[in-house]
Design goal:
The complex is a heterodimer. Helices cover 72% and strands 0% of the residues of chain A. The longest helix of chain A has 34 residues, at 70-103. Chain A is an all-alpha fold. Chain A has a domain at 69-254: MetI-like (MetI-like fold, Orthogonal Bundle). In chain A, helix 1 packs across helix 11 and helix 5 (124-145) crosses helix 6. A two-stranded antiparallel ribbon of chain B has the order 1-2. Chain B has a single domain (53-288), classed as MetI-like (MetI-like fold, Orthogonal Bundle), CATH 1.10.3720.10. Chain B is globular and about 80 Å long. Chain B is an all-alpha fold. Classes of the chains: A mainly alpha, B mainly alpha. The interface between A and B is large, with 87 and 90 residues.
């Protein structure tokens, strides 16, 4: 039944077949999307008319490739901008949160910890509408009492950034906490005994130790932000992020350009993921 | 020299606490309180706004509303159950059956599809299933089917989309707990003559219960709150409750009604999670960790 026990061959073969079907199910949509990005056809479907790169580098007029497609290129840049903002914000706050929950003792710590987990559990759609309504109420309140009209509070990229940060910070915090838990605190004590201040200890010792998880957390935040849809849907103004722009195109049936964007995304995600893996390996080796 | 661990509420605490407090209160607690307030506000016949329960009564009076929520809840439970049934044997296969070398490869292969955006995966299924899609082209081309069949925009296609996009979130927690199950227990059971079914029922499942519950909770919440798969792969008459929220907020511009819907979804899904924990005798604290 398990690898240390003798098994019958039907059991082994049956299980292997199950695994094969499983992986076909997992990979089929990805492979098909990727392959059809290179089909010399006006529609993302069969029959196969031959290999082309037009859907990436075509300049038109019939086939406008991804890199000359203003809507998709703008959306990619907007998403990049938002994702960088979210990664920065959530990593800074997440690092503070990790220190708070791992190294500080204070009343109601357990309750605050549960509150910190909550943004991850609440559906993204509900998070989206709550941030939207609060920003709106706050904007109206400020306009009435102080007389200022804050653009930041109406739907748009700043609001998207804040909305995504709300739940992504929880993921970053958990990533950093996981590593901080394994930290040997005698290292800090040694530093204190040698006369270091708390700030010096955190800066030179604890943060150095945490660096791989901070980089990892930032990468997770970037990826989560880049592909977020549910929360973003309600906070977007006139500038759509890539998932919002893709959603509209896919709803209308899609086009080979959408396949090209998908391939581009797969490529970028693989680079980030492999880079992350490389950093994790390197830090393990140390 | 003051010891950092005995000194309470020092500047370190303030430095760490301030940003966390701002984050959780400005971006989570206050927005949800405001949403709750909004859900109890309504405009009366004369255009005056005040506190009311109308947004909640409207939900129970209008069948289109509560039927959608009921449908969303039931379908989410079914999808969660299917994912669990698919994830258990796979988690077992990877952690216990295959050799250690293959194990790393398979684990990677399970994670890789989830690096790709959810939209792309749903798009892939649309290309495969729709009337002009891959399956129809191939089967009609081979002469097996006479005319193409629309397989997208059905409950089945919706389920495929939801299963595909959420499978990993069940696999990871279950693989985690299965890994910690001592092989010797399974060997002992087998040596004493227990059948495979008994080994699963008496040894593996009880051990994996925390992982099963945390996976199920995550998957259920994600499925119930999903928007992309229902909007792109579901039928025209099969709204998901998140789409009702979107319709109220963005299309009808009735934020009060939408806010009430948001809380109804939150309360319903939390209630289902709570009942599931009760029935299986698990504690939330154990499952979360």
């Amino acid at each position: 039944m398990i690898r240390t026990l003798p098994t019958t061959s039907p059991y082994r073969i049956g299980y292997a077949l199950f695994a094969v079907v499983y992986f076909i199910f997992l990979f089929a949509p990805l492979v098909i999307v990727a392959v059809l990005a290179f089909n010399d056809s006006m529609f993302p479907s069969l029959p196969w008319y031959g290999f082309t790169l037009d859907w990436f580098i075509g300049k038109g007029p019939k086939k406008v490739g991804l890199f000359y497609h203003p809507m998709n290129m703008t959306a990619i840049l907007i998403s990049l901008q938002v994702a960088l903002g979210v990664a920065l914000l959530s990593t800074v706050v997440g690092t503070c949160a990790a220190f708070l929950f791992e190294q500080e003792e204070f009343p109601f710590k357990r309750a605050l910890y549960l509150l910190m987990i909550a943004p991850m559990v609440v559906p993204g759609v509900i998070l989206g509408i709550s941030i939207l309504s609060f920003a709106n109420s706050l904007g109206m309140f400020l306009e009435k009492t102080v007389g200022v009209d804050l653009r930041v509070l109406s739907p748009g990229l700043p609001l998207v950034t804040f909305g995504q940060t709300s739940f992504i910070t929880t993921f970053v915090t958990l990533v950093i906490i996981a590593r901080l838990k394994k930290f040997d605190r005698t290292l800090e004590e040694a530093a204190y005994n040698l006369g270091a201040t708390r700030f010096e200890v955190i800066w030179h010792i604890t943060l150095k130790y945490l660096r791989p998880s901070i980089i990892g957390g930032a990468a997770v935040a970037f990826l989560l932000s880049f592909e977020n849809f549910n929360t973003t849907l309600f906070l977007i103004g006139s500038k759509p992020t890539l998932p919002i722009a893709l959603f509209a195109q896919i709803r209308d049936g899609g086009s080979p350009v959408v396949n090209a964007v998908s391939v581009f995304l797969m490529f970028c995600m693989s680079v980030i993921a492999l880079g992350n893996l490389y950093f994790a390996r390197k830090s393990q080796a140390q | 020299m003051p010891d950092s661990r005995t000194r309470k509420l020092g500047w370190g605490f303030v430095l760490f606490f301030a940003p966390v407090f701002v984050w959780l209160f400005l971006l989570f607690v206050l927005p949800h309180l405001d949403l709750l307030r909004l859900s109890f506000v309504g405009t009366d016949y004369y255009g005056k706004s005040g506190l009311t329960l109308d947004n909640y009564t409207a939900f129970f009076v209008e069948p289109a509303y509560w039927m959608t929520l009921l449908r969303t809840a039931v379908y989410s439970l079914i999808v969660t159950a299917i994912i669990l049934v698919l994830a258990l044997p796979m988690a077992f296969y990877i952690t216990k059956v295959v050799g250690l070398r293959v194990r790393g490869l398979l684990t990677l292969m399970i994670v890789v599809p989830f690096w790709v955006s959810l939209l792309v995966r749903v798009y892939g299924w649309m290309i495969i299933l729709r009337e002009s899609g891959i399956i129809n082209r191939v089967l009609v081309g081979l002469g097996i089917w006479q005319t193409p069949l629309e397989m997208l925009y059905t409950d089945a296609s919706l389920m495929i989309g939801l299963i595909h996009t959420n499978l990993l979130f069940m696999l990871v927690p279950i693989m985690g707990v299965m890994d910690s199950l001592d092989n010797a227990l399974i060997e002992a059971g087998s040596n004493l003559g227990a059948s495979k079914f008994m080994i699963w029922w008496k040894i593996i499942l009880p051990h994996c219960m925390t992982g099963i519950m945390s996976g199920s909770i995550i998957v259920f919440m994600l499925v119930a709150g999903s928007y992309i798969a229902p909007a792109l792969m579901g039928g025209k008459n099969s709204l998901w409750f998140t789409q009702q929220i979107y319709n109220q907020f963005i299309i009808a511009f009735n934020w009060n009604q939408g806010a009430a819907f948001g809380f109804l979804l939150l309360v319903t899904s939390s209630l289902i999670v709570w009942v599931a924990l009760r029935v299986t005798g698990q504690k939330l604290g154990e499952v979360v960790q």
